[in-house]
Structure to design on (138 residues):
């Protein structure tokens, strides 16, 4: 179908993306989904991972999301996430130190740690690093 679909990615503190997309792919909790203009409306929760979209010029863009929700309408996708960064804004140093910190917490069994919280932090850091290691140029 011809035409672009609007994409908005927002966090509690800022708007991360406000753009037009040819296609958007997102990590739904029930599986990855892709949408183009004219899609049937639906709501989905999101896993930690990457939102990928092709902008109107055909460039592929990648954005880290820490999970959240997606609202899909025929002409617009809105992503609400606790945190999100465009690939170019991800700090490798920060992600590496978050990874090391979370790993130390999980390895240190004799301390009273919040296991789920450390695991979630590790997962966010891993996905940020994975996005940086992927070959896309953005
Ligand atoms: P950290 O322990 O480094 O804060 P985190 O996974 O706990 O990592 P989040 O709670 O997901 O961090 O995000 C807090 C804020 O910091 C958000 O605004 C997020 O966009 C930003 N942020 C976190 N990690 C990075 C990173 N590696 N590069 C750029 N921004 C980051």
């Amino acid at each position: 179908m011809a035409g672009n679909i609007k994409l908005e990615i927002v966090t509690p503190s800022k708007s991360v993306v406000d753009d037009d997309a040819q296609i958007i792919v997102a990590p739904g909790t029930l599986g990855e989904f892709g949408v183009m203009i004219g899609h049937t409306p639906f709501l989905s929760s999101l896993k930690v991972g990457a939102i990928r979209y092709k902008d109107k010029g055909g460039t592929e863009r990648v954005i880290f999301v820490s999970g959240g929700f997606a609202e899909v309408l025929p002409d617009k996708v809105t992503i609400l996430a606790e945190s999100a960064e465009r690939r170019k804004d991800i700090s490798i140093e920060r992600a590496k130190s978050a990874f090391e910190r979370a790993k130390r917490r999980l390895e240190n069994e004799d301390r009273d740690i919040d296991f789920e919280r450390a695991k979630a932090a590790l997962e966010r850091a891993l996905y940020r690093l994975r996005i940086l290691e992927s070959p896309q140029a953005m």
Summary: The chain has two domains: 5-87, 91-133.
